[in-house]
Design goal:
The complex is a heterodimer of chains A (174) and B (488). Chain A has helices at residues 2-26, 34-63; strands at 80-87, 90-94, 98-99, 104-110, 115-120, 126-132, 138-142, 148-154, 166-172. Chain A is an alpha+beta fold. Chain A starts with a helix and ends with a strand. Chain B has 16 helices and 2 strands. Chain B has a single domain (2-347), classed as Up-down Bundle (Cytochrome C Oxidase, Chain A), CATH 1.20.210. The longest helix of chain B has 35 residues, at 234-268. In chain B, strands 1-2 form a two-stranded antiparallel ribbon. The chains are: A alpha+beta (174), B mainly alpha (488).
Amino acid sequence: MLQDTVWSISVALIAGMAAVFLWVAAGAGRRADAEAVQRRAYRLRTGWFWLLVVVIAVATATTLTALPYPAPAPQAASRVIVHATGAQWSWTIEGPDIVVGRPVEFQVTSTDVNHGFGIYNPSMEMVAQTQAMPGYVNRLQHTFTSPGTYHILCLEYCGLVHHQMISDLIVKPN
Amino acid sequence: MPTSSAAVAGAARDVSPGVNPCVVAYIAVSGVVLLLMMLLGLALRLAQAEWLAMPPDLFYEMMTAHGVGMVGIAGLAGAGIMWHFLSQHVRLNRGILITNLVVFLAGVVMILAAVFLGGFGGAWTFLYPLPATSGGVWEPEAAALYLGGLLVVGVGFLLFYLDAGRAIIAEYGGLGAALGWPVLIGSRRARLPEPAVVASTMVVIVNMLGLVSGAAVLAVSLINLAAPSFAADPLLAKNMTYFFGHVFINATIYMTVIAVYEILPGHAGREWRASKPFLWAWTASTILVLTAFPHHLLMDFVMPRWALVVGQIASYAAGLPVLVVTAYGALTLVYRSGIRWDAASSLLFLSMFGWAAGIVPAIIDATIRVNLVMHNTMWVPGHFHFYLLLGMAAMVFGFMYHLGHDRQARTDMLDRLAVWLFAAGGLGFALVFLYSGKEGVPRRWAVHLPEWVGYDRLASLFGCGVTAAVLVFVLRFLVRVPRLIAMR
């Protein structure tokens, strides 16, 4: 899962930074000539800057190629259209059966305040989400790869019963 | 960047210089409120952990108070630190400083009354149209009192930044000059601005824009409460709210980091002067803080796609000035410097780690593809608790220890223990948030599913440690307050 990869990268980078700070702190009691330290640090900083620029450029180019945003116009013929409407504090989900392997377009909106339409698989791992906003329809396109009872959780704070705004979504085998 | 081995003037002093009593009041209020807000936050985690019985309505009221209280007090602490150091370079108006504090406290009273008497639980972000659409839970009057309180607080801060901007322009001839632009274009007669001036100028620019946006959306929400037929565009209101919120909370770090620039060199016996990379970094930060805010709207698919792409790229780039200039500069400053470690220098050095490392989960969450499965999970409070608790708050506590502290005195065991407890507890607290987010736990849920409660219990234990450490920091400072006033 993407979440596991993201967690591993974060922990590795945070641990790496912690090691550098601890190393500098541990050696700070010894004195070295400040100008010599500065000259060397400035040389290293240039390399550090360009390394980060390259990392950011590669990460940007890689991740922006797979945006989750929908195509400009819905392709009703090839997609199952499901209407999802949030209202304090329940979801109304209307549409034909959802089947594994067939692309689905959730057309998500709200009748009152902002809600968040979060789709969780039967193991309670999040697979996709979009916001539900009054006056707007967000189109979330997703293709389910395994059948089961999925769960819709509200992911935008919407008032005092926010945590009970949960619905089920059945995905049938192909 | 740190330059030369010559000890700066401050290093020769055994005791930090006198401080304006109003700044002491800012920091004392900030310390006490930070502690109270941490207790509120700890209570929220204990409730999610099922170790503290709390009805959902009270949970969401306390969550609202915790959020708005933390953001507001971070702003107040930052303003106190900024005023303390900026006033050494420009002529600031003391009356405005006092006015901001008085107005802030008046606004806080309104907000507390709205939340705990009126039952307002619309979260600190007051996302339109939630204040007027509570589902019958709170009355419009309570929402109006909350929004009005925020507006009052915002007006106080706007006065503060207007005065700072006026004083900077009077001394340096313009905000561009105070950001060092003449130096960057190679003007021979250019005056090199001090780090505190550069940072303050950046904050003046971004926060005035942010506060105006916040005030506008507050006004719209208030009108909507009074006349429900007056409806605003929810997407526009959301953009304005997050622009304000993003800019304001980021600016708190850019204010408190002035304490690092000004205090840490004295401990290291080295100097930290503005340089061209430093000036480029702060100009870049000015632009990037203003342009990165769409990363809060990545899951609003109706937003213009270009804006969301800009949000991701600007968020990535916003890490560069911190990682390449400020955090790297602090490491260079301390490296083999023979620094005298005490509570102040330890916390300020820790704050550099907290800010730099906290950028990692922040940037990752700003990746659109990642945001699809992380947005509004516990990952979000995980990343901002990381750099606000271990970064911004550590800067504030470092500044508190700096004020009136005898530098020749040894740091006693209790302070040392508190610093280590704060570092370990804060790191554990933030990491559990992040792990919970990775597991898909939604943020802002009063009641958690049974499989999530274990994370909440672990976070509560770390939270207890952090709160105990902060209790030591704040009590130590409050004990020194009479001495600080007498020094004046």
